[in-house]
Design goal:
Length: 196
């Protein structure tokens, strides 16, 4: 859902899909002078985004941020170029890490040194906690969207508590009276990775 967006016109879902498709649908709706405000949300974060929709379709599309897949393809092209002398370009970023002396001793004793050991530990933790992290991110995205679109609706606070308590049954019961498009989108954001 990283490159998936949804636009709402008031409580009604207007468009969903790739950013370019949603932006053009919003532009068309705005040209029809609709009464309800239109907000575009990132499905990955649940947060509203702002786009400059001035001009024609070509101008709008040229201003849109490039999707993550395009930058990954560019990185792959760079890596496929013949390599020169020196260290390979791995996209490594240097940052400061503060550890206790015993931690540095252990890291330096590992094969490959501290950097290799830290990268292995991070990858191991990402694999071990991947599902938990995805569920946490999904709940946070649902909450951000709920706050923007349903903050004044009945049982918002109780529904928020049920969402973070992972009480799906109570959560869906509490949001049942909400407008259908808002309710369905909240459930999609919160539980998209889980079977119905």
């Amino acid at each position: 859902m990283a490159d998936h967006f949804t636009a709402f016109e008031g409580p009604r879902r207007l468009a969903a899909g790739a950013l370019a498709d949603v932006a053009l649908a919003v532009k068309q709706a705005e040209e029809q002078r609709r009464a309800e405000p239109i907000v575009i949300f990132s499905d990955a974060t649940g947060r509203a985004i702002d786009l400059d929709l001035r001009g024609d379709a070509e101008t709008i599309l040229a201003r849109l941020p490039k999707p993550a897949l395009a930058s990954a393809a560019t990185e792959a092209d760079i890596q496929s170029e013949p390599r020169g002398r020196g260290r390979p370009k791995l996209g490594v970023v240097a940052r400061e890490v503060t550890l206790l002396p015993r931690h540095w001793e252990w890291l330096n004793a590992q094969p490959g040194g501290a950097s290799v050991a830290l990268r292995k530990l991070v990858e191991q933790a990402r694999r071990a906690n991947g599902d938990v992290e995805r569920q946490r991110a999904a709940r946070e995205a649902a909450y951000h969207f709920m706050s923007a679109m349903a903050g004044n609706l009945p049982a918002f606070e109780e529904a928020s508590r049920a969402l973070f308590a992972d009480d799906r049954r109570n959560f869906t019961r509490l949001i049942a009276p909400w407008p259908a498009d808002i309710r369905d989108h909240v459930v999609k954001l919160a539980y998209a990775d889980q079977a119905e």
